[in-house]
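Q: Trace token order:
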Amino acid sequence: MDQANPLSSTFGREARAGLRDIAPAAIAAIPIGLLFGAVAIAKGLTPTEVAFMSATVFAGGAQFAAIEAWVHPAPIAALAFATFLINARHVLMGASIGPKIKLTRPQKFVALFFMTDETWALSERRALDRPVTAAYWVAISAALYINWLASTTVGAVLGSFLGDPARLGADFAFTALFIGLVAGFGKSRVTLVTAAVSAVVSALVHHFIGAPWHVASGALAGIAAAYCAADREVRS
């Protein structure tokens, strides 16, 4: 029994550290989750479908992109392709953080389903001076997952009573958030060229072809523009 106490104490300490670290991100995600639920309801989903989507997809950016391009019947192939492009960064993130998490290989496959930008960043920072324990990973991942599932579901329920969020201008909130994130990358020529090309191509495709192809087209155009602009900058 005496030998079990240190292990229990270590697990609790690591879990509390995880909850403390993830708290700011979890709080910041609540209004975004509420907004997603309301927008999804306006697009024709039910609260149950919103909850199921958040539970099985668990990717805020990809979920917003899918809802933005949502039409009836849903274009599954196009939505899957757009989601893949948006979440492709997770391949590199998983390769980076996977070896640093103290879990078995099968456990890592399950654990990395819950990886987000926030949990990856916190774990990478923690790995600089200490191991990323199972308790720490479970704490930050579970807290953010439960928070996102609850906030999107509540947003869906409230949205069904409030009506179309576009009446309040709330449908533009996530777009404004992304504009702020892009602006935070600075004003280098590569950033400006990438953002401009992606926006123009996405707008043109949306106008002439329609959703959801503008999402994938804008992403591909932005990647190509970034590559060309960066290569030209290196040569010069």
In short: Residues 185-236 form one domain.
